[in-house]
Design brief:
This protein is of the alpha+beta class. The protein has three domains: about 160 residues, Alpha-Beta Complex (Penicillin-binding protein 2a (Domain 2)), CATH 3.90.1310.10; about 400 residues, Beta-lactamase, CATH 3.40.710; about 55 residues, 2-Layer Sandwich (Trypsin Inhibitor V, Chain A). The protein contains 20 helices and 26 strands. Strand 6 and strand 7 form a beta hairpin. Helix 11 crosses helix 16.
């Protein structure tokens, strides 16, 4: 046993070591606590937002639910663009047991590349699209595979029930339901609506469950000034004219001169908005607003109107046309014929360039330029269609010595079809230039936001407008446009034949723009119609190429609108009981082709076949001169149609079939057809409404 003194000494020496170790241990613990608190502060405060976001990204996914786009309707509330519910295929890659096998199975069914699909599976864990807005057949084939981790989601797909009808005005939408062209693009903010959102949570086993949902707001519907029947007439006539003359393209615009409402706007080449990706770049251009061309003699309206308004001439004043040539700045300009002395009215009727140039010289550069601008040229009409051009117009400071002559006869100036039809409407309505209007109303439910017609502004006096109406009526009566004479109605207008600029920068001797623009009836005009054809082959004068198309459109449109005849001395047109033939079929049947301009003095008696419309036109209540309804000049109901059996077909197939037959479809429900009225096998006429009920 150790002595007591030794034990006391040992205890004294061990206490400092224990204290030291305690202090070290306490210090380490304090540092650890401080570090832990610091780390917690860093994670809970500094990195909180980022970490929460990363956690939500792993545990949640937000699916945006596209709202139902608003419907686009014509002036009679017939739908031209609507949205249909279709299936989209998506995958949750973490739930797919064998991604390679699933990619191999899905790729051929959906028309996809296997490598691309597998890459999408590997790039995303929680969600990836396989293919959006698939066809009914594709959806059924995918369902039949019964693949784990592959699901369906309902989305809206834009559908254009009339196919190509008014495609350039309507435009089209992309896969994300955003408008890409036409009114779908120009009015996208209103039509699209506000999207909804669904937040889907996932647990540790990657099982999905609905967390929250926010409903969207449907888009607004748009009512156009277009009339689908008049649009059909215009497109049919344009297509036949372009085919007949092997033209590059063309445009037709039909306007109400009293309000500026556009009743029809057609452009060629055209496209089917349901499958716009297959169309070329040229087919996507709306020539009615986006094509700038030299108007030629149709521009003489401005020159002669300005001279009359300034009291520099009268319709019966005789002008020496110098046997068809005049010299300006050492340049000789020739008429298409060697005219001698002509009245101002005949200068327009016979389309003398020399006569128009002499009137332009009287006006001078500044006054002529002022009237050109007053008629709306050189600036956009603000019709609210995307892609509208302002045209080409140089200020007088940049005119050459020959420019006043060139501009007076429609050269050295570029116009768009919608600008020119608005200018002619100003003469037709008594001197007021209205802003063209394509949208009539925008609404959602009972809330309406109508687009009121513009008040217009006066460009020439009532007197000048009446004088010009008489002069333009002479063009159709005995001038270059006798081929535009209407059966039962008076008409006024002007032909135009303009040389195009070739690659060398000079006027081509083989490429022309042929046009006619006019209005009817003369005293109380109901429509102004412009027809312009680009690069026709086999003929190039507006009288032979464009005037007959004007006649076809005007006669059917006036009859459809039940406009009273003001020239009943000519027998009314009897509508054909068969659909109109194409230009190619007409040539094969040895159809009569209108003679050249120089031979057109007797062409007013040529018969024109009516276009059979998709919808029946209302017949006048009382036929003129007590004749029967068969000879009213109205368009007939077309051939008898046997209503097909729609049982078991999806909405799109039924809509396409109805469009092909010219039947009006009234959709009830969704899914597959199970009932219809009229029943299958019933005889019906074009335009008959067929109600089809669908169910799943």
């Amino acid at each position: 046993m150790a002595p007591l003194g030794f034990q006391h000494q040992s205890a004294r020496t061990s206490r400092p070591g224990t204290l030291k170790r305690s202090l070290v241990l306490g210090g380490v613990f304090a540092v650890w606590v401080i570090a832990l608190v610091g780390r917690l502060y860093y994670l809970q405060v500094i990195e909180y937002v980022d970490l929460v976001g990363r956690a939500q990204k792993q545990q949640q996914r937000t699916v945006e639910v596209a709202p139902n786009r608003g419907t686009i309707l014509d002036r009679n509330m017939h739908p031209l663009a609507m949205s249909l519910a279709v299936d989209s295929v998506f995958a949750v890659p973490t739930e797919i047991p064998d991604r390679g096998m699933v990619a191999r199975l899905l790729a051929p069914v959906l028309g996809l590349e296997e490598k691309d699909l597998l890459g999408r599976f590997n790039a995303s864990r929680a969600f990836c699209w396989v293919k959006r807005k698939v066809s009914d057949q594709e959806a059924e084939r995918v369902r039949a595979l019964n693949l784990k981790g592959v699901y369906f989601e309902r989305e809206n797909k834009r559908f254009y029930p009339k196919g190509e009808l008014a495609a350039h005005v309507l435009g089209y939408v992309g896969l994300d339901d955003n408008g890409l062209a036409g009114l779908e693009y120009g009015r996208n903010d209103a039509i699209k609506g506000l999207p909804g959102r669904i937040v889907v949570g996932a647990d540790a086993r990657h099982q999905s469950f609905l967390s929250s949902e926010r409903k969207g707001e449907p888009g607004k519907s748009v009512v156009l000034t277009l009339d689908e029947n008049i649009q059909y007439i215009a497109e049919k006539a344009l297509a036949e004219t372009v085919e007949k003359w092997h033209a590059t393209g063309g445009a037709v615009v039909v306007e109400n001169p009293g309000t500026g409402d556009i009743l029809a706007m057609a452009s060629s080449p055209t496209l089917d908005a349901n499958d716009y990706a297959k169309s070329g770049e040229a087919a996507r251009v709306n020539r009615a607003v986006g094509w700038v061309y030299e108007p030629g003699s149709t521009f003489k309206l401005v020159t002669v109107s300005a001279a009359l308004e300034e009291h520099l001439t009268k319709p019966d004043e005789v002008i020496d046309c110098q046997m068809g040539k005049v010299v300006l700045a050492r340049h000789t300009i020739h008429d298409h014929k060697p005219f001698g002395s002509l009245t101002v009215a005949d200068v327009v009727a016979k389309s003398s360039d020399v006569g128009a140039i002499k009137l332009g010289l009287r006006l001078g550069q500044d006054r002529l330029f002022r009237y050109i601008r007053s008629f709306g040229f050189g600036e956009r009409t603000d019709i609210q269609l995307p892609g509208e051009e302002r045209g080409l117009l140089k200020s007088p400071d940049h005119w050459s010595g020959i420019s006043i002559g060139a501009v007076s006869m429609g050269q050295e100036v570029g116009v768009t079809p919608v600008q020119l039809v608005a200018a002619y409407s100003a003469i037709a309505n008594g001197g007021i230039l209205f802003q063209p209007r394509i949208v009539q109303d925008v609404f959602r439910g009972s809330q309406h936001d109508p687009v009121t017609p513009s008040t217009g502004r006066r460009v020439v006096s009532q007197r000048t407008a009446e004088l010009m109406k008489g002069i333009l009526a002479g063009v159709v009566d005995h001038g270059t446009a006798v081929a535009a004479q209407l059966q039962g109605y008076s008409a006024a207008g002007k032909t135009g034949t303009a040389q195009k600029i070739d690659a060398s920068g000079k006027y081509s001797r083989s490429q022309y723009v042929a046009s006619f623009v006019g209005f009817a009836p003369v005293e109380r005009p109901a429509v102004t119609i412009l027809v312009v054809i680009d690069s026709p082959v086999g003929g190039h004068h507006g009288a032979e190429v464009a005037a007959p198309a004007f006649r076809s459109i005007a006669e059917q449109t006036l009859s459809y609108l039940s406009v009273p005849q003001d020239n009943p001395s000519t027998p009314p047109q009897i509508a054909s009981s068969t659909p109109a033939k194409s230009a190619r079929q007409a040539r094969e049947d040895h159809a009569v082709v209108p003679p050249p301009e120089s031979e057109m003095s007797d062409t007013a008696t040529l018969s024109l076949q009516s276009v059979a419309l998709a919808n029946p036109f209302p017949q006048p209540d009382s036929p003129p001169n007590g004749s029967s309804n068969q000879a009213t000049g109205g368009v007939d109901h077309g051939p008898v149609i046997i209503v097909p059996d729609f049982s078991g077909l999806p909405v799109r197939r039924v809509a396409q079939r109805c469009q092909e037959l010219g039947l009006e479809l009234n959709v009830r429900g969704s899914g597959l057809a199970f009932a219809q009225n009229p029943a299958a096998g019933v005889q019906a006429s074009a335009g008959t409404e067929v109600t089809v009920q669908f169910a799943r």
